[in-house]
Amino acid sequence: NHNAFNIITDEVAYWCGMMASDGCIYENGINNLVIRLGLNDIEHLYKFKEFVKSDHEISINERTGFGRIGFKSLQIGNKLIK
């Protein structure tokens, strides 16, 4: 859902904070977005995936103890950068 961040609600504000603290945006003309969390907080990645209606997989690295989800969205990236 490329429009997930268009209207600021409490839920959108929560995910903006999550992106600000645990995420990043690679501005490369297509805006790659990534959130990386410790495995003890992995359920938040699944909730974020559901929020943005992503079909991308969550990758889990048992060795490092982190999970991540990443995807490309020019619209979401631009909204978050603003």
Structural class: alpha+beta
Largest sheet: 4 strands, antiparallel
Q: Based on CA inertia axes, which overall geometry fits?
A: globular
Radius of gyration over all CA atoms, rounded:
12 Å
Spatial separation of the terminal alpha carbons: 18 Å
Given as residue ranges, the uncertain stretches (5+ residues, pLDDT < 50) are: none
Beta content comes to 25-35%
The largest beta-sheet arranges its strands as 1-2-4-3
What does this structure look like?
It is a single chain. The chain has a 4-stranded antiparallel β-sheet with strand order 1-2-4-3. Strand 1 and strand 2 form a beta hairpin. The chain is globular and about 35 Å long. With 82 residues, the chain is α+β, with helices and mostly antiparallel strands. The protein has 3 helices and 4 strands, in the order αββαββα.
Could you name the key traits of this structure?
single chain; 82 residues; alpha+beta; four-stranded antiparallel beta sheet; 3 helices; 38% helix; 26% strand
Q: In a nutshell, what does this entry contain?
A:
The protein is α+β, with helices and mostly antiparallel strands.
Task: Describe how the helices and strands are arranged.
Blueprint: H1 10-22, E1 23-26, E2 32-38, H2 42-51, E3 59-61, E4 66-72, H3 74-81
Antiparallel strand pairs: 1-2, 2-4, 3-4
